[in-house]
Amino acid sequence: MPVSLPSNYQRRSKNLRIFPTGQRNCYTLKPNEGKGNTYLVRASFWYGDYDGKNQTPVFDLYIDVNYWTTVNSSSWIYEEIIYTPSRDYIQVCLVNTSSGVPFLSALDLRLLDKSIYQINSGALVTSWRLNLGSNYTYRHPQDVYDRIWTGQTYEKFQSVSNKTAIETSTSDDAFKVPPEVLMTAVQTQSVTANLTLRWSSDNSANDWLMYFHFVELQLQKKDIRELTVLVQNKVVKTVMLENQRPVTLSSSPIGGPSLNLTIYATDRSTLPPLLNAVEIFTEAQLPFSPTFLDDCISLRGGLVNAMYDVKRTYEVIKASWQGDPCVPRQYSWSGLHCSNDSAPRVISLNLSFSGLKGRIDTLISHLTAVESLDLSNNSLTGSVPEFLSQMPSLKVLNLSGNNLNGSVPQTLLKKKADGTLLLRLDGNPNLCQSDNCPTSNVQPTKKGISIAPIIAAVAAVLVLILLGALAVSWIIRRRQIQNVSTTTTTTNSTRGSIGTFRLSKNQPFTSTEVTRITDDFRTVIGEGGFGKVYFGKLDDGTEVAVKMLSRSSKQGYKEFHAEAQLLMVVHHRNLVSLIGYCEEYENMALIYEFMFNGNVRQYLSAAQNVNVLSWSQRLQIAIDAAQGLEYLHNGCKPPIVHRDLKTSNILLDKNMQAKIADFGLSKAFVTGLESHISTHPAGTPGYLDPEFHSSGNRGKKSDVYSFGVVLFELITGHPAIIRSPEGSSMHILHWVTPLIERGDIQSIVDPRLNGQFSINSAWKAVEIAMSCVPTIAVQRPDIDRVLSELKECLTAEISSGRIQGMGNSKRQVSL
Predict the structure, then answer these.
(1) Which of 214, 240, 308, 655 is deepest in the core (most CB within 10 A)?
(2) Is 330 within the bounds of a domain?
(3) pLDDT tier, 558 (very low <50, low <70, confident <90, very high otherwise)
(4) Which GO molecular function annotations are given, in alphabetical order (predicted)?
């Protein structure tokens, strides 16, 4: 749809993304409102001879599994469709038809009021949307749905306007045509002249559908404007216009290569025919259904096809694994075959030599129609799972050439023996395929008497003895601690009397023990909103960080104890482990594992660290942090909201693995500088959710906003608040946004990297960060979606080998 847009809209499309590899490349859009709602999907394109070949690419555009349109224009165009998806996601796919490299300048998704456009079948493809009587083009913010209204005037018709007549005309109108559009119109020179317009299209296969928008602009006393609307010489409706009252008429679908519109004034009308705006669509047929969703599981609130889960879990990287697995058939994923049903099923899956690692995941069992499964010649480990024998359609199973161990389930061996399953297991040296496999179960003696009950009885007695010994030891230990505490109170001699027993992890600590651990608080290694952090060492040599909590905390003993106990059972490889705590009134402390490499902010600061994190290290840190946050949000019951996520709270261990610290503390502790109300938790300027200032509440999406700021810090090297030598300050988002608009990725990425990064990977990271920081919380993705996209970003970096100049350095990011 070629149109003329103001320069600020065209500027968005001066950057593009190209797809030089793969026949089908897809974007998956996941609106929060999900399926059953009506959306406007718009893809924008501007070739602009970016490659210097002066050869306009021609390629196809698909909406989910159905053909949408063919893109073929060197000027700025957009293709738009109004669509109601049958699933909770929408896929927009660019298909290479061997006529040039597909490209995309921008992709927009907008939620519509599903009552305004009547979709009889399929979808509505926008042909024209005209703002008549004006040369101005409008979209958002004038249009709340972000529809593009292109200005259009005609020499044969008079342009009329009235700015004061419609200021409040659209407040109760579901179509919500912008007042700026309705305040102008075209009309004929006389009452007796007809207003006629004609459009033609190369595509005559689909039916036309029209929407006419009217508002009276010139009605005076005793005037009447009554109009009859005809399409293809068939009457649509007769309407009488009233001041400040918008009226919308729609036509029935009608076929033909051209479209004729006629509006005439009735006999009693004193004013000529008038039209303010018009929308013209073609009805797109959507004949194909996506792959059958019988193989679905619930994945944190949304249904996800099992094949997508296979791709995600095993990180399968195949060029053809884009879009729907089975449909359209000519673009189906390599390595699988599908049935010919109206909603196809995956009946064969071949993932041999695909680099699969780890155990055979239960998600495979969701492919209930699979008849042949080939997982051979990979690096799969663990045992052969029992569920494989329960897959109802499975006839061929090839697990050869892996590192599987243990014994093969008897149910699988039985199916192999009776000929109902062709089973291959060779090439697994640690896998036992006989009936006499080693087992941990105790075998009967020669006399047929099992010794298992005897061993169980002996074990029970030993356990009782051990428990008794532990109980006595505990009583003695508590008395020692009490004696030490008493001595401390009377003599102030604290450290010499505690060496008679060994400190262990995961326990309450006394203030005396804390003093001993920190060597009388000798080494300060940090300071935050909750107090100073000291280096310490347990008796077993474990290095720890001891966070002494500020005395201005308003938290009570019971609340502190409950919170500390909760945090001690939260364990994840990307969360700093809480080893213990001290809950004495004057000395409340939290004892964490020691993180050898400090925090991420220190590594990003040239002043504090000369060692530059590589681009892949930064992406891995982002993934580590996202995994930790995802566990807090979705793996904990109830969920834990961090409330103060920032680069100084992301720590690095000896192996540079990132771990989140201080999770849950903003809820548990409130310093004296803050409100005593627990629903107003702490936060750090620069990372604080914009919605917090209006609502006072922070939830998961607030953490996502903070994570977006952290990601921009990793990308740019700048802190959240950038301070100039003159003393002024600027938020990192205000600094980076103009660079994104210009498509200047080289200026965005930390210059200390010296260009050692993949352009595609960097743009992907910027897009992910931008998706996290909308001012409206509901527009931000969940952290699990962010995590998935970050892994794809790292994959792109690894596959590129950090080759200079790979990809297009100019690229559009939605702002």
Answers:
(1) 214
(2) yes
(3) low
(4) ATP binding; protein serine/threonine kinase activity
Cα 434 to Cα 452: distance, rounded to the nearest angstrom: 24
Q: Give the Cα separation of 40 and 407 in Å (integer).
A: 54
- Do 604 and 527 share a structural domain? no
Q: Does 678 lie in the same domain as 760?
A: yes
Measured in degrees and rounded to the nearest 5, phi and psi for residue 527 equal: -155, 130
Return the active site residues: 644
- Report whether 137 contacts 148 (CB < 8 A): yes
Do 629 and 757 belong to one domain? Answer: yes
Distance (Å, whole) CA 459 – CA 433: 32
Which region holds residue 54: left if phi is over 0, alpha if psi is between -120 and 50, else beta?
Answer: left
815 in a structural domain? yes
* Per-residue pLDDT tens over the stretch 346-397: 888 888 888 888 888 887 888 888 999 999 988 899 999 999 999 999 999 9
Kindly report the CATH number assigned to the domain that includes residue 677.
1.10.510.10
Considering Cα of 434, then 440, then 445, then 449, what sign does the dihedral take? negative
Q: For residues 282 and 206, is the Cβ–Cβ distance under 8 A? A: yes
The pLDDT tens digits for 639-648 are 888 888 999 9
What residues does 67 pair with on adjacent strands? 62
**Domain holding 50: CATH number?**
2.60.120
Residue corresponding to tokens 């005309």:
169
Answer whether 626's CB lies under 8 Å from 707's CB: yes
Asked, as a colleague might, if the bond just before 438 is cis with ω within 30 of 0, I would say no
Residues in the chain: 815
Domain boundary among 112, 142, 173: 112
Model-wide pTM > 0.70: no
3-class SS string, 244-297: CCCEEEECCCECCCEEEEEEEECCCCCCCCEECEEEEEEEECCCCCCCCCCCEE
Question: Rounded to whole angstroms, how far apart are CA atoms 523 and 533?
Answer: 9
Residue 806 to residue 803: CA distance in whole angstroms: 6
